[in-house]
Amino acid sequence: MHNFSRYVNPHLGDLLEQVHLDKTYIRGEGHYLFDSEGKRYLDFIAAYGALPFGYNPPEIWQAIDEVRTSAEPSFIQPSVLEAAGELARRLIELAPEGLQYVTFTNSGAETVEAAIKMARSATGRPGILSTTNSFHGKTLGALSATGREYYQLPFGAPVEGFKSIPYNDLAALEQELENNNGRYAALLLEPIQGEGGIVVPSSGYLVQARELCRQHGVLFVLDEIQTGLGRTGRLFACEEENLCPDMLLLAKALGGGIFPIGACLSTAEAYSKDFAERHSSTFAANTLGCRIGLKVLDILVRNDQSMIRRVQDNGRRLREALEMLLQRYPRVIKSIRGRGYMLGVEFDLSRADFPSSYLSVLSYQDNLTPLIASYLLNVEGLRVAPTLNGNKVIRLEPSLTVTWEECQVVLQALEKVSNVLDKGNTPELLRPIIGLGNQPIIHKPREEMYPWDRYQPTGHSEEGRFAFIIHPLDLYQYPLFDPSLKGIASDALQKLAELGSQQMKPFVMGRTAVVSRAGRRAYGEFICLPHTAKEMLELNTEVINQELEKALELAQQRGACIAGLGAYTSVVSRGGLLLQGKVLPLTTGNSYTVVAGVEAIKLAARRFKMDLSQCSAAIIGATGAIGRTLAILLSEEMQNIILVGNARHPQASTRRLRQAGAYCCMHLAEQASRGWQPAPDSFGANLLLMDLPPLGTPVDNWLPVVAELEQQGRLVITTDIAQALPRAQVVLTATSSVDELVNPRWLANGAIVCDISKPSNVSPTVRQIRPDVLVIDGGVVAVPGRPTLGWNFGFEQGLGYACMAETMMLALEHHYQDISLGSDLSLDNMMYFRELAVKHGFELAQLRSFEQPLSEQEWERVAKARRQKDHLINIAR
């Protein structure tokens, strides 16, 4: 770990490392930085404008050497300060006419603090008015003037008296001043918002804003800490409108890229005796800083400000070239802003243009520009950065000495990255971050399969509204969402998953509309949590459930009235119980999942003419909600039941398995009391011959029955999968494990395996090693009307999981109440969803195996292998 990350700022260090911006620069020379490996980078950040002449400018070092040689004292407060007085005189001579005094500081934020104090002292008023999305530094007072609550809350409540209004909105300013006449000491403005995204106000805005302030006795303060001293193609940005403020704030460039110094220039009216007597600083106005400031001014005004005029000309040419780039890539670049060498390029990939692209999600969540900066740095050798508040904007803010030839290098690099973005080439943009080597990755865009705007809510009260919370089950589901990731190695996908897990928030992955057989309509959205199943199990329960709450809040904000919990979102929330009552009514979808799983088993058995009443069924994960209920329903059909628990906790599993067995017995006894008749020699028929407890008695009263069934071999309780599987002609998996639990060598001849677990618990090698075994995916349902679900679930259009279908049914019925939560699934609910499926037209999909439809050729292949296996067994006998 680098010392910076270990001892200075571990959070920033981690972020820089995640996006590969963690270069160690060992040398700076002119406009270039050199890292520890000797690679050179063109720097177009220039320390956010604090490097007017690049790194280590010789003339600034010469000024420092002259101070050292002369032995002029540095810190001599209180005294008449020679260097400070000289620099103040030069600043006032160059500044707009009307400014008279200079208060020196040590930084930009400190300059803002001095201006706030000066304004309050001069007016006797407490209020400071600023604009939304502005930036004035990171001291508490300066943060309070940003107009962004995000920056205020971490440090407690903002300083009293601060308020923000929209930038570039004269009507809002006039209304605020009239409504609060006599409250405000000053209006604090940037002539161009820097960290807000390089936002240039309308012509005349600054002049009219100053006039409104004067009418209400409010001081007009221009923060030129970033725009001042040549940055915009003028010595001061306010010269563009021939404007003199009451205070003009400077810093950054005044230190020549070597030494921190700031200055607050003010009119005589703004500068009071009270402020002069109370404000002081040990280090401000020091000799070294002021001598450097004098040299900076000498360089800037040399040859009739030829450097600044060159900034104006090159900045205009650069902006024109960027606007041409915007015309070539309108889906990627949305605007070009700024003046001189203070330009912003706004990047934004909309979901409408890129519905199945990881990049559009990153863009929507304002996480794309750091990755663009990473690509430009690591691939093109260009150093840029996003603006702080305008998170979609890449700033171009180089040293004032940058040449047009270097600007052309930047244009070429931006052309390349825009082309990558326009193709939706996710692996190429992330190549340096996820370790995909040095060769460019070619991606040819394909026609989008799932148009983002295909389905929209109607807004009608009769329309049902739902959300379904999903997540990538494993790494291999990332290419299903973003086809450009197809063929990417698993280690690179793992890095991509880690990046998403750390940087992304829940987002809308797909949208759909369901029109049922009964004529009802429901609109729904699939909200994705950026965590794989393995990550969700490894995360702290409280942390992952907080993430789930955010997903549910997003669903609620977008109009959902009920939410389904998919895959491991149900597991980590204890079947939804940890989220119950917090945001939305919930369902796990487990009730209909069980119904669909049993129907799939019956359908497969009929195809092979298997009599289930003469077969044994093994249920792996029988202690869970789905597994136990599957066992209960299958007990109606099978000859023998094998309940398989977790080998890691054999004692607890065995106890719970016996309880599951007792529930099977109780269910069958109750069914018999209603007239149900089991098949001869089946599990149920054998049970009814026994001496049973009265119906309605506690489950523990049925444990002796379970023990007797175990002795008979009709019921097997085990945590040994290897022992269980050879005895079962039907196998169901319903676990929360991410492991492949079903070994092909353990399976009985001609077994049917129904895999309901997601991720799958069945090894894909079963198909090759055991061609006589049929593996079917449980719980896949055809949605009425076969709509797209907005992204590739790995199914044909209109197919989804049964848990999704349950959520859709509830929305169609406007049944906005919790259901199917926790570990106890009601058989009544299962019958309810079986009826709703018929009513609305949800049907069991064509059976599938390893997420592919089972064709007639595949059925025949398995049937032939089964016959051959039986023949060989008969010969052996």
Which architecture of the domain at 610-801 and 843-876 per CATH? 3-Layer(aba) Sandwich
- Give me the secondary-structure category: alpha/beta
- The CATH class name of the domain at 610-801 and 843-876 reads Alpha Beta
Q: Report, as a whole number of angstroms, the end-to-end distance.
A: 67 Å
Q: What is the alpha-carbon Rg in Å?
A: 35 Å
- The proportion of residues forming helix, as a percent range, comes to 40-55%
- The average pLDDT score comes to 91
β-strand percent reads 15-25%
User: For the record, what is the CATH homologous superfamily label of the domain at 610-801 and 843-876?
Assistant: NAD(P)-binding Rossmann-like Domain
- Unreliable residue stretches: 149-156
Main beta sheet: 7 strands, mixed
Query: CATH topology of the domain at 610-801 and 843-876, which one?
Result: Rossmann fold
With strands numbered from the N-terminus, the spatial order across the biggest sheet is 4-10-9-8-7-5-6
State the shape. Answer: elongated
Structure explained in plain terms:
One of its GO terms (molecular function) is identical protein binding. Pfam families: Aminotran_3. This is Putrescine aminotransferase. It contains 32 helices and 31 strands. The strands form seven sheets. The chain has a seven-stranded mixed beta sheet with strand order 4-10-9-8-7-5-6, with helices on both faces. About 1% of the residues have low confidence. The longest helix has 42 residues. Among the domains are: 222 residues, Aspartate Aminotransferase, domain 2 (3-Layer(aba) Sandwich); 226 residues, Rossmann fold, CATH 3.40.50. With 877 residues, the chain is α/β, with parallel strands linked by helices. The two termini are 67 Å apart. The protein is elongated, with a radius of gyration of 35 Å.
